[in-house]
C-alpha cells in the first residue's frame, strides 16, 4: 500500500457530521436477491454510425438493456439471481476528480459485502497508472470511514491519462488477470468510459474473465445521452459555483462600479455555465453552443457585451456579472481555426518559439492582434485528446480587455454616456473540484455503486451503470444498465464536396440542446436578467432543511426518463401481443394494423432523417 493513499482524514465537525449521513437505496436494489429484466438489443442513437460501431465492437455492441426490479415486481421473464459467490472487484478513478466519486466506492463496497462478506473490493492507487502497475489497496470499513460523503479522489488518487494504446490495454488486462478480478469498475467521464468500452471489447475477444463496468462521474455534466440524465459531481459544482457567482453579484450591486467577468470550468460544453445562470441569475451568460450555432466572431461577442453595458448604463447601472464557459475559445470560429493550425504545427514537432512564424497569413494576422498573454496561452501543447488546455486560456480577460477598449472608444466619441468601464476577472474552476458533495450527488453516487454490483452479479460486460427518473425522490429512481457502445457516435468531418473523414467510435461530449427546455427557460429570462438585478443566491450546500433536496434546474425542467419509457413501451407491445392473437375479431385486427402502420411510417421518417448527416 502507498502511504499517501487511504490514510484516515483529519475531519472538521461538519465533515464528521457528513460521514454519518446514510444515502437511501431504491427498492429495486434492496435485499440480497438481484432481479434483472432484459430488454431489446440497444443500438446507437445515430443509425449512420451503427455499422462502424458494430464492426469496432463485435463482442459488446447490440447487447440488451438491463432493468433491475424491485422484489414485488411481477415479470415472468425476469432473471432472479439468489446465489452470490465471493467476487474480486477492482475499482479505479480515471479523469479529473469530481465530488461524489468516493460514494461510488462506498456504495459498491456495501453492495458487495451485503451479498457475500467474503467478496473483496480492490482500489487501484493513482488511477490508470496504478492499474497498469498493479498498485492496490483493499477497501475496508476502516479505509472508507473518513471518506464517506466527502469530496476529492484522495482515497485512491486519480489520473487523466487514457487507457488507449495496445500496450496500455494489454497492461490493464494483465493486471486484472494477475489479480484474478471478476470485474473492473472505471469511474470517469466521456473519455474514461470510451476506454472502458474498449477494454470490455478486448477482454471479451481475449476471453478474459474480467467484466468491465463504467460509471458516469464528471463535474462537466457533458456525459448525457438517452440513458444518462446527468453525471455525479455536476450538481455540486454548479451549486458551489452558483453561490460564488451570487456573492459576486451582491458585491457588484453594492459597489455599483464593477463588471465581473467569470469564467467557469466545464470543458467545451457549456452545461455548467447554463445551470449556474439558472441558479444565480447573472446579467449575461455567453454559451459556446450559441456562439457556434450563430458563428459569432470574437468581435460579435465583444459588441454584444458592449451593447449590454450601454443598455444598462442608460438605466444608471454601471455594474454587472457576465458568465463565460471555459470552452468558449473553441466555439469562436476564427480562434478555433487558429488553435487547429497551432496544434497541427505542434504535431509536426515545430517548437513553441517558431510556431508564430509558420502560421498562415490570416492566422498570423489574428495571432498578432491578440494580447500577448493570450498568444502565450494559445501556444500551450494540446491535451491528450487534442483539445486546447482550456483551463489555462483566460478568455474572460481577453473579452474584458476588448470590451474596455470599445467602451473607452464609445465614451470618447460620446456615444456612451455611462461611467468609465471597470472589469474584474475570475476563473471558478479548481476551487469547487474538491468540494463536499451535495446531498443529491452523495445519493446518486452511492446508488450507482450498488448498481455496479448488480451489473457484476448479472455477468454483464461493457455496460454503464444508469439511474433514471432522477428528478423524483430516491424511492422512485429506476436503476439499470446500458451497453456503453450504444452511447457511442461516429464523428464525420467534411473534407471537400466528395471527401469525408470518419472518426473512431467514442462516447462523445454532449452539447447543450438549443431546443431543450433548460435553454428555453434561460432565453425566456435573459432580458430581465440583463436589465434588472434579480440576482439569486442558492446559499451553501445543505443536507437538511431548505435547499437540501434541491437538484439541478436543468435536470428538473427536462422530461427525460428514457429507460422508464423504454420499459413502458415494452409493456404496451406485450399488451398488443396479448390482445391481437389468432381468433381475435376482424375489427380488432384492422385497428391494430392501421395503428401499427401509421406508427412505423412515422418512426421510419424520424429515424431516416438522421442518416447521412455530416458533422462539420
From TrEMBL:
The keyword Ligase does not apply. It is found in: Cytoplasm. Its main location: cytoplasm. Keywords: Allosteric enzyme, Cytoplasm, Glycolysis, Kinase, Magnesium, Metal-binding, Transferase. Residues 88-454 form the Phosphofructokinase domain. Allosterically activated by fructose 2,6-bisphosphate. The keyword Kinase applies. One of its GO terms (molecular function) is diphosphate-fructose-6-phosphate 1-phosphotransferase activity. One of its GO terms (cellular component) is cytoplasm. Gene3D superfamilies: 3.40.50.450, Phosphofructokinase domain, Phosphofructokinase, domain 3. GO terms for biological process: photosynthesis. Pathway: Carbohydrate degradation; glycolysis; D-glyceraldehyde 3-phosphate and glycerone phosphate from D-glucose: step 3/4. Regulatory subunit of pyrophosphate--fructose 6-phosphate 1-phosphotransferase. Belongs to the phosphofructokinase type A (PFKA) family. PPi-dependent PFK group II subfamily. Clade 'Long' sub-subfamily. Tetramer of two alpha (regulatory) and two beta (catalytic) chains. This is Pyrophosphate--fructose 6-phosphate 1-phosphotransferase subunit alpha. It comes from Urochloa decumbens. The gene is PFP-ALPHA.
Amino acid at each position: 500500500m502507498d502511504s499517501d493513499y487511504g490514510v484516515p482524514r483529519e475531519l472538521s465537525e461538519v465533515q464528521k457530521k457528513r460521514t454519518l449521513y446514510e444515502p437511501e437505496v431504491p427498492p429495486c436494489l434492496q435485499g440480497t436477491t438481484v432481479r434483472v429484466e432484459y430488454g431489446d438489443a440497444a443500438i446507437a442513437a445515430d443509425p449512420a454510425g451503427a455499422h462502424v460501431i458494430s464492426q469496432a465492437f463485435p463482442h459488446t455492441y447490440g447487447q440488451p438493456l438491463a432493468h433491475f426490479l424491485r422484489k414485488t415486481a411481477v415479470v415472468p421473464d425476469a432473471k432472479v439471481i439468489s446465489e452470490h459467490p465471493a467476487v474480486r472487484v477492482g475499482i479505479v478513478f480515471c479523469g479529473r476528480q469530481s465530488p461524489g466519486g468516493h460514494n461510488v466506492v462506498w456504495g459498491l463496497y456495501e453492495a458487495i459485502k451485503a451479498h457475500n462478506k467474503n467478496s473483496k473490493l480492490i482500489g487501484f492507487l493513482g488511477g490508470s497508472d496504478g492499474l497498469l502497475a498493479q498498485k492496490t489497496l483493499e477497501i475496508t470499513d476502516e479505509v472508507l470511514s473518513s471518506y464517506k460523503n466527502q469530496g476529492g479522489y484522495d482515497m485512491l488518487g486519480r489520473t487523466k491519462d487514457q487507457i488507449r494504446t495496445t500496450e496500455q490495454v494489454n497492461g490493464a488486462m494483465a493486471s486484472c488477470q494477475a489479480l484474478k478480478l471478476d470485474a473492473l469498475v472505471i469511474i470517469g467521464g466521456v473519455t474514461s468510459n470510451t476506454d472502458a468500452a474498449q477494454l470490455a471489447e478486448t477482454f471479451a475477444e481475449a476471453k478474459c474473465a474480467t467484466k468491465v463496468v463504467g460509471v458516469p462521474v464528471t463535474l462537466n455534466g457533458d456525459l448525457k445521452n438517452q440513458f444518462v440524465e446527468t453525471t455525479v459531481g455536476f450538481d455540486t459544482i454548479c451549486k458551489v459555483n452558483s453561490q460564488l457567482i451570487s456573492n459576486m453579484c451582491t458585491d457588484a450591486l453594492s459597489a455599483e462600479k464593477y463588471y465581473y467577468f467569470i469564467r467557469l470550468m466545464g470543458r467545451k460544453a457549456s452545461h455548467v455555465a447554463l445551470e449556474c445562470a439558472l441558479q444565480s441569475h447573472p446579467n449575461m451568460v455567453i454559451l459556446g453552443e450559441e456562439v457556434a450555432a450563430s458563428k459569432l466572431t470574437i468581435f460579435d461577442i465583444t459588441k454584444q457585451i458592449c451593447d449590454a453595458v450601454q443598455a444598462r448604463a442608460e438605466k444608471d447601472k454601471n455594474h454587472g456579472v457576465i458568465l463565460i464557459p471555459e470552452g468558449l475559445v473553441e466555439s469562436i470560429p476564427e480562434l478555433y481555426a487558429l488553435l487547429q493550425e497551432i496544434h497541427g504545427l505542434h504535431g509536426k514537432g515545430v517548437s513553441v518559439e517558431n510556431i508564430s512564424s509558420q502560421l498562415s497569413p490570416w492566422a498570423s494576422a489574428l495571432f498578432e492582434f491578440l494580447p500577448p498573454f493570450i498568444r502565450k496561452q494559445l501556444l500551450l501543447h494540446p491535451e491528450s485528446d487534442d483539445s486546447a488546455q482550456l483551463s489555462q486560456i483566460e478568455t474572460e480577460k481577453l473579452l474584458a480587455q476588448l470590451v474596455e477598449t470599445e467602451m473607452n472608444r464609445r465614451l470618447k466619441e460620446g456615444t456612451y454616456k455611462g461611467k468609465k468601464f471597470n472589469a474584474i476577472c475570475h476563473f471558478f474552476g479548481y476551487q469547487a473540484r474538491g468540494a463536499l458533495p451535495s446531498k443529491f450527488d452523495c445519493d446518486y453516487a452511492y446508488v450507482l455503486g450498488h448498481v455496479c454490483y448488480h451489473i457484476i452479479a448479472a455477468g454483464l460486460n461493457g455496460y454503464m451503470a444508469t439511474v433514471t427518473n432522477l428528478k423524483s425522490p430516491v424511492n422512485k429512481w429506476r436503476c439499470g444498465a446500458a451497453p456503453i457502445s450504444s452511447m457511442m457516435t461516429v464523428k464525420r468531418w467534411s473534407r471537400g464536396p466528395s471527401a469525408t473523414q470518419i472518426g473512431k467510435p467514442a462516447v462523445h461530449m454532449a452539447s447543450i440542446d438549443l431546443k431543450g427546455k433548460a435553454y428555453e427557460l434561460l432565453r425566456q429570462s435573459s432580458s430581465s436578467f440583463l436589465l434588472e438585478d434579480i440576482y439569486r443566491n442558492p446559499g451553501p450546500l445543505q443536507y437538511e432543511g431548505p435547499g437540501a433536496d434541491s437538484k439541478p434546474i436543468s435536470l428538473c425542467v427536462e422530461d427525460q426518463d428514457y429507460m422508464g419509457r423504454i420499459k413502458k413501451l415494452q409493456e404496451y407491445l406485450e399488451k398488443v401481443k396479448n390482445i391481437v392473437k389468432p381468433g381475435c375479431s376482424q375489427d380488432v385486427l384492422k385497428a391494430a394494423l392501421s395503428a401499427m402502420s401509421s406508427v412505423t411510417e412515422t418512426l421510419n421518417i424520424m429515424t431516416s432523417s438522421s442518416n447521412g448527416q455530416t458533422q462539420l
